[in-house]
Write a structure and sequence with these properties.
By secondary structure, this protein is of the alpha/beta class. It is built from eleven helices and seven strands.
Amino acid sequence: MDSIRISYDTIAEDYAIHRTVHPALLRRLIEHCGALSSPRVLDAGCGTGNYVVSLASATTAKCSGLDPSPKMLDVARQKAAPVSWFQGSAELLPFPDGSFDFVYSVDVIHHVEDRAAFFREAFRVLAAGGLFVTATDTEETIRQRAVSHYFPEAVEPELRRYPKPGEIPQLLLSSGIQELGDEMVESAYDLSDSAPFERKTHSCLHLISDDAFDRGLARLKNALRSGPIRCVSSYVIYRGRKSITS
């Protein structure tokens, strides 16, 4: 984990403006949620609430969002969605055993310092038969990102933050979660605005020098002069289930 610690309190407003849901990933979360009967759902590391608000509007789930950043939660609450908001840590979830039928995290695992504790906590708060999902990146998906293309100095420090190959399935098994599976989801999009990069809403941009950032931003702005850039955004979704006998 790189020593620079990103304050999401300071970038919450920019994050809310410039970061949106990944359409293919959201569809899969909705499908998982829809397969359960009136589920109790927890978004662990919900940020400004993009995914959990979308789930609450698309399903009958009773939704909760948890994040360590009070400013991110302040922004989330402004969306006036039927979601219960909680401040807290993924490594020490402030909920009783068996509180949820579906626990998920999106783009969170690289921020969690004690991943084993998070997975144990997810297992603990899941009801018997409950589903756990975490969506994250691999080395392949990190290297193919637009931000990696224009800011190549961000790749290596970014890779150091993410789980190594095989780490997440092992953590799931160690926590007691079973019936493991994984899949990759992709969505194409047109990149037409440099503002999210200028505002450093991609956390990896906080891990590089000012000179590297300036060079990358210049490359991106120069490329955008020719029009929108076609990109593909990918996530790997890991899933597992708590045994009904747990």
